[in-house]
């Protein structure tokens, strides 16, 4: 692997531990304002993107969300046997409260919660029909290793769906960086009421994130089939990838 010293520990394949530790603290600091800033910076499209991911699950399926954060997606998915994984105990604490309240209101059993990294999932092989990653893949320390682990815990014929900030090409990524570096910073400042808000770090993770082509290739290299991945219309600032574990 080439040195990441000139990029503060980031490249499209992953993030060095020191830089990741800083990023993780920034992610935890977003919790009180996370949903509101997301809604504003995506003009409300994040709800539609979450629903489009949830639509990949059928009733009764076993579903793992990797990088569940404060539960913004997990509290919305219905009718599945749900496991939420995140390395942050604080994210899991907030998620558990929200997600189990929503599940209980719909007469569903609590979800399971696992404190772990995507790169080392402490769950048996072939356990899940679906694995979903929403706005967490960009934060993996080692994206290839995370995908290998996800492939391992998927049942044969099972499916991974990733939704994250998107880069159609490096040129498009430049436009995205402008957006993240200006409008998103301004919105985060307004919502949090401080210049010193954690979205500065999130912009950094987008800067060094790879293109759709790069991750489609990584998914295939790891062993996923029926791989596809594209920008989501009409906003074009997020991408959705789909890949399946061969039967
Ligand atoms: C922006 S939040 C995503 C929240 C949620 N999934 C949603 O729908 O908005 C990103 C989450 O990814 C988690 N994360 C960071 N690195 C990770 C890794 N290596 N493996 C799994 N999750 C990770 C963070 O702790 C954080 O909770």
The geometry reads as globular
Would you identify the regions where 5 or more consecutive residues have pLDDT less than 50? none
Order of helices and strands: EEHHHEEHEEHEHHHHEE
**Biggest sheet record:** 7 strands, mixed
What is the assigned CATH homologous superfamily? Vaccinia Virus protein VP39
- Percent helix among the residues? 40-55%
Quick tags:
seven-stranded mixed β-sheet; binds S-adenosylmethionine; 41% helix; 9 strands; alpha/beta; 21% strand
Describe this structure in words.
- By secondary structure, the chain is α/β, with parallel strands linked by helices.
- It has one domain: Vaccinia Virus protein VP39 (Rossmann fold).
- 41% of the residues lie in helices and 21% in strands.
- It has 9 helices and 9 strands.
- The chain has a 7-stranded mixed β-sheet, sandwiched between helices.
- Helix 4 links the parallel strand 4 and strand 5.
- Helix 2 packs antiparallel against helix 7 and helix 6 packs antiparallel against helix 8.
- The longest helix is centred in the middle third of the chain and has 17 residues.
- The protein is globular.
- It starts with 9 loop residues before the first strand and ends with a strand.
- The site of S-adenosylmethionine has 21 residues, from helix 1.
- S-adenosylmethionine (SAM) binds next to helix 1.
């Amino acid at each position: 692997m080439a040195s990441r010293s000139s990029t503060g520990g980031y490249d499209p394949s992953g993030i060095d531990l020191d830089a990741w530790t800083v990023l993780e603290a920034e992610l935890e600091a977003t919790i009180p304002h996370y949903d509101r800033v997301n809604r504003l910076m995506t003009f409300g499209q994040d709800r539609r993107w979450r629903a489009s991911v949830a639509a990949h699950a059928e009733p009764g399926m076993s579903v793992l969300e990797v990088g569940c954060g404060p539960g913004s997606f997990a509290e919305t998915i219905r009718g599945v046997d749900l496991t939420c994984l995140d390395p942050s105990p604080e994210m899991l604490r907030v998620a558990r409260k929200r997600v189990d309240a929503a599940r209980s209101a719909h007469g569903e059993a609590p979800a399971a919660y696992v404190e772990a990294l995507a790169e080392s999932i402490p769950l048996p092989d072939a356990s899940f029909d679906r694995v979903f990653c929403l706005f967490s893949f960009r934060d993996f320390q080692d994206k290839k290793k995370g995908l290998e682990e996800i492939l391992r815990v998927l049942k044969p014929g099972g499916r991974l769906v990733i939704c994250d900030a998107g880069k159609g090409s490096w040129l498009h990524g430049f436009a995205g960086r402008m957006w993240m570096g200006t409008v998103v910073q301004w919105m985060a400042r307004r919502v949090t009421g401080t210049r010193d808000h954690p979205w500065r770090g999130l912009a950094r993770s987008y800067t060094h994130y790879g293109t759709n082509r790069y991750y489609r290739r990584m998914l295939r290299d790891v062993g996923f089939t029926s791989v596809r991945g594209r920008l989501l219309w009409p906003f074009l600032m997020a991408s959705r990838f789909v890949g399946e574990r061969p039967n």
